[in-house]
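hi! just following up on the protien thing from before. the input was this:
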Amino acid sequence: HTLHESRAFIHSLNYIKYPTDVLYKKTLPKWIKNYWASANILHCHIKWRVCKPWPPFRSDIGRVLHQHGRLGLNSTYTIQDVHREDRRGHCIRVVSTINLLSYAQDDPKRWFPTPVDMDYLQRAKRKHRHPQHDGKIRIMHSPTQRYLKHTDMFLKIFYKLKEKYKNIELILVENKTYPETQVARANADIIFDQLLLQHGSNGLEGMAMEKPVVAGCISNPLIKDKIEEMVGKIPFMYANEETLKDILEQLIVDESLRAEYGKIGYDYVKKFHTPPYVTDLAIKTYKESLEVRK
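and the predicted 3d structure came back as:
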């Protein structure tokens, strides 16, 4: 155990209203500038340039540049840009999902899984799950941005399946707070996450609630083998535009398949996304960032 203090700063807060530590706008209070100036390690998400309002970097601090799924969507932001960010910050690059490892020199050690509070999510499931005696199968989709999550395609497929399976029900969650989303997720039987970038927080938290998740990664079809190499069996029902309807139909008609993938996803999150696991990884990463500083 070491003595340390960490603070999380966020510069915008959307409708989800995730719990956060310090929210700042364009003007920085002096105490935040002082905190920044005294930091030993800076862990920045997406890219350094979002830190423009902040004071200049000191040369003697460790830096971690943490890149997320939407980076892979930005065709104008290339691996060369990442390298320039690296030279500017002398940083350790990590990524949140396996499909982005090409931005971290394909080094598996650079996968920095998103931590998930499984105890909280299990409590939320027990608290909000209503007894289901109506025979309905509820399919949840929670897009933050419809065009990124294949929402229109999913809805067309859902309503087509609805013609055949009258007992399916849609739970479409948009513009809801984090607690409201948990209530909806607790009552879902199947979760469709996205097809573009492996899975997001919605899928992860669904797995933590033992829900079968449907997702894919058409932005990098070859990543399937990489996921299996690193974590074993893919923890979600892997789909693309051609197979999404069939995958959803399999889950609708087969309760045992839903239970199987609920357990596979839960075991995966428990192994790779719990706070103790991610904390140990963070400590190693931060120590390395201090070793490579210039």
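The beta strands are 9-10, 22-23, 41-45, 62-67, 92-95, 137-141, 168-172, 190-192, 213-215, 237-238.
Residues 75-79 have pLDDT under 50 and may be disordered.
cheers
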